[in-house]
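Supplementary Methods, section 5.1.

A reviewer requested that the exact input to the structure prediction be made available. We therefore reproduce it here, unchanged from the version used in the analyses.
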Amino acid sequence: MARAVITLKEYQGFQRAYDFFNRELFAGTLPQVLVTLQRHANTRGYFSPERFSGRVDTAAVHELALNPDNFAGRTDEMILSTLVHEMCHVWQQTHGEPSRRGYHNRQWAGKMREVGLQPTSTGEPGGKETGQSVTHYIIPEGHYAKAYAQLSASGFQLHWQSVPAVPSAKKSSKMKFTCPDCGQNAWAKPDALLICGECYDEGEGDICFMLAEQES
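The structure derived from this sequence is encoded token-by-token as follows.
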């Protein structure tokens, strides 16, 4: 894949998926939104109404965001189910009665079930369908599962996901110092200059400086 088309190819994929599910699951009644990739902790995606305003005209558009940090280990079917989850918020904002920001109410839950996604607070059967934090699972043989099968059969694929973050090593504020003669250890700031009290001979004036090594 040519690097020059990476952005265009991936975002066109999400636009294609949005248009497809809009047509198949929402009868084409949803407005166009700006799909973005956002790394918001503890969320697979979110919907934010009228998050963008026009720089050329006076239009305002909704944001539908997906978190690429949650793509790894999930199939395209699962990732796009998050897209449809957020599209149910778009539907409610456009045609229903949305509740307070971030809350999943009964109307939204009903639309989710209608399009083939079961809302659940736990991600498993039996979880609460409404609340501030609600995810979903795909209903087998439901409308979403059947629609995705059509999309997949057309050759649709997502191409990119975030590389898992590698925790950085914690930097120590202290260093380990060791006497080269007697082996005694001490800990101090990295720029400290330590003298070994065991090996220091005041009468002869011999000074044994302790050597620093990075503490693991």
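Strands lie at 34-37, 45-53, 60-66, 117-120, 135-138, 175-178, 185-188, 211-213. These observations are discussed further in the main text.
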